[in-house]
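Minutes, project check-in

Agenda point 3 was the complex the collaborators sent over. CS summarized: two entities, 219 residues total, and the question is how they sit relative to each other. Sequences were read into the notes so everyone works from the same version.
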Amino acid sequence: GDQVEQSPSALSLHEGTGSALRCNFTTTMRAVQWFRKNSRGSLINLFYLASGTKENGRLKSAFDSKERYSTLHIRDAQLEDSGTYFCAAERGSGYNKLTFGKGTVLLVSP
Amino acid sequence: AQTIHQWPVAEIKAVGSPLSLGCTIKGKSSPNLYWYWQATGGTLQQLFYSITVGQVESVVQLNLSASRPKDDQFILSTEKLLLSHSGFYLCAWSLDEQYFGPGTRLTVL
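CS then shared the predicted structure for the full assembly.
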């Protein structure tokens, strides 16, 4: 089946620094979404990309369908950025089946 | 603005008992609807999807069923719960991008 490999599984950052999360896909995907888990366990939408890059505040995401990967960059990390981040990709075969990565647990410390 | 509601918020049920989880979407006509499930420590996986009223397709077999009785309503159910049904259930809607509901946490004892 379709596979989404997300890395790293855990990431520690100091406030003010930045890093990137990455998802590799085993097949060509039509679009990717990035989410953050909220306190209840549901998902907050961060980005939806069919190609290229998008930026929102201190977050920036890129998606390369041909090279089969997507990234989520966090810059100037703040304590409130701590949480679990997921990527999910859809192959676009008739309906929007999202295949999720296993998530990245981000901890931002002072 | 679109809103998505799920009920109940949480449920504790006995093995072998029936289950019905609900999801409604307001403010969006004829969306695609989805049920997802995540076991504790597991990866979120899609269970069912529906493109239109009365039509539901199964993605993963878990001894659960789903129905879409109205355009804005999606129901997940089973007549006999298993221990393995425990977990977190999420409903989602989309036209392109998927948006998720608040979820239902199910514990089967």
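Noted in discussion: Chain A has a mean pLDDT of 94.
Follow-up: revisit at the next meeting once the mutant set is ready.
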